[in-house]
């Protein structure tokens, strides 16, 4: 079965999470095991030293009480330490108690007699490891003896096995949790990527569709013009139609380039102190001719001086998009009303048309690229050469200026577009500029 690239990415990321966590657990477990092993060995040596100390203390007490060697032997019989073998030997290695000792015990006693004390490990034939501690000491009578305590390291091995089993179970549970949590986190992390890829695919499909239409018209009109000889007027008419489609195609490409630059170059725009009302008046003058061709009047409503910190070219482009959108959807003989005012220091622009408006359920999507909602509006857009990218560009311009662009549809007045710019920072009057 062929996996999608995102599915493969999720699987690889989850695998890397598990592998990385396993490596961390392995390093942590190894260090912890070595540390605890050292601690266990230290505790074992300490217990052997304590055992020999108890043996020496008991021997000294018995000698003081009885003053006889037999009393010393009795002291060893009375002393019992679980899991520890105790030996009392002469400095020449001769055993006192018990009566016999293995040769390696005697050798250890002689070495301890020379060195003062001795710690050593001894491997037995049954794959067991013994740990020995020997101390030379002097009784109150002046006699030198050697006390030896021996322990079987199987005690440590049992503790190691328990430790490894507990750590292994905890590590396995942790790996399962990491695998489940990693899969969940990877899914959440790749969801925005998946949405972006899906949006890119939809955008490319919509862009191809939008570009295909004018390109098809250009090709068909050129083919028709070339099918048979025409007079000058016929060629002029054909070329004029080709030119109009070329203009529409160029506009779509320009809009696509604008959005592409907006995404690829997230640097902040250069702002200056401008008067929003002057920018709006300039834009209104620029579109009056187009509006009159469609039989639409543009009316200036309430108008106040409004100062903003913005890029004048981008703000003008945004205003032109809103005016162009209103002219496209306003019915012939109607009026588009433009207002500029201030609200708590913020500059507010509203553009109101008397068109069909936008249903409330479609308003959240109007800023999406190439979005088509009401078929009636789509026919109007197609008739007027719209690319479906204008409002997306307007939204981007508003966002980079920390402004808020909203559309209210389904009202008796048609569509109301509102641009609310944040209050201008306090700058000296000399910095003010007008478009």
What topology does this entry show?
Elements: H1 5-66, H2 69-78, E1 85-90, E2 95-97, H3 103-115, E3 117-123, E4 129-138, E5 144-152, H4 154-227, H5 232-264, E6 272-275, H6 276-293, E7 297-303, E8 307-310, H7 312-329, E9 335-343, E10 346-352, H8 375-384, H9 390-400, E11 404-411, E12 414-421
Parallel strand pairs: 7-9
Antiparallel strand pairs: 1-2, 1-5, 3-4, 4-5, 6-8, 9-10, 10-12, 11-12
Helix pairs in contact: 1-2, 1-4, 4-5, 5-9, 6-7, 7-9
What does this structure look like?
The protein is an alpha+beta fold. Helices cover 57% and strands 19% of the residues. The strands form three sheets. The chain has a five-stranded antiparallel sheet with strand order 2-1-5-4-3. A five-stranded mixed sheet has the order 7-9-10-12-11. Strands 6-8 form a two-stranded antiparallel sheet. Helix 1 packs antiparallel against helix 2 and helix 4 runs antiparallel to helix 5. The C terminus is likely disordered.
Q: Unreliable segments (pLDDT under 50, ≥5 consecutive)?
A: 69-73, 375-385, 426-435
> Which shape, going by the Cα principal axes?
rod-shaped
| Multimeric state | single chain
Q: Main beta sheet, described? A: 5 strands, antiparallel
Overall pLDDT score: 78
Number of helices: 9
Order of helices and strands: HHEEHEEEHHEHEEHEEHHEE
Structural class: alpha+beta
User: How many strands appear in the DSSP assignment?
Assistant: 12
The whole-angstrom Rg is 46 Å
The order of strands across the largest sheet is 2-1-5-4-3
Distance between the termini: 61 Å
Helix content estimate:
55-70%
Q: What percent of residues are in strands?
A: 15-25%
